[in-house]
Amino acid sequence: MPSLTWNAALENNLAQMDETHREFVECYNAVASAAPEDFLPAFDRLIAHTVAHFDLENGWMAAVDFPGCHRGEHDRVLAVMHDIRKRVERGDMFLGRRLIEELPAWFENHVNGMDAALAFHLSSIGFDVEQGALKPLADGEQRGAGCACASMNTPEEASTAAATGAA
Questions:
Q1: How far apart are CA 100 and CA 103, in angstroms?
Q2: 122 with 60: CB under 8 angstroms?
Q3: pLDDT digits (tens, 9 = 90+) for 57-69
Q4: pTM of the model
C-alpha cells in the first residue's frame, strides 16, 4: 500500500494550512497501513479530519470571496469518501483500498495547485488565518491583489484602468 511522506514540497508557508496537511498525511498513513479489521475506523478518522480540514479552508475562501472551484473539489472528494465508506461498511474493501492508492497523487496535486494558490492569495492580501480577518494596514501600505488579479496593477490601478477603458 502506498504511503505519504511529509516533505518540504508539501509546504505552502502558511503554518495552519501546513499543520492541517501534516495531520492529513498522518491520518492517511494510518488508513494505508491498517489491518482489514481496523480499516473502517481509521478511514472514519481520515474522513472526520478531511471534513474539518476542508471546512477550515472553505471558511478562509468564503471570508475573502475566493473562486469556488477549490471548494467544489473539496465537495467532490468528500462525496467520494462518503460513498466509498458506505461500500467498505458493506464489505467492499476493494474500492476502499483503491481510493487509498489514489489519494496520494490527488493530495500532492491539490496541495501544490489549489492550496498553494489559496495560501499565496491569503498571504498577498494580508489575511490572518488565525483571526479569520484581514490584517490592518500600516500608514501608506497597500494590499496586494493576490492570485485572482488579472494584471500586475494594484486594485486601485485596476479599478481606474477599468473605468477609463485603459486596461
A1: 5
A2: yes
A3: 999 999 998 988 9
A4: 0.81
Asked whether the CA dihedral 38, 41, 47, 48 is positive or negative, the reply is negative
> Which residue is it, cell 475506523?
41
* Cell of residue 159, nine digits: 479599478
Q: How far apart are CA 15 and CA 17, in angstroms?
A: 5
Sole residue written with cell 489549489:
114
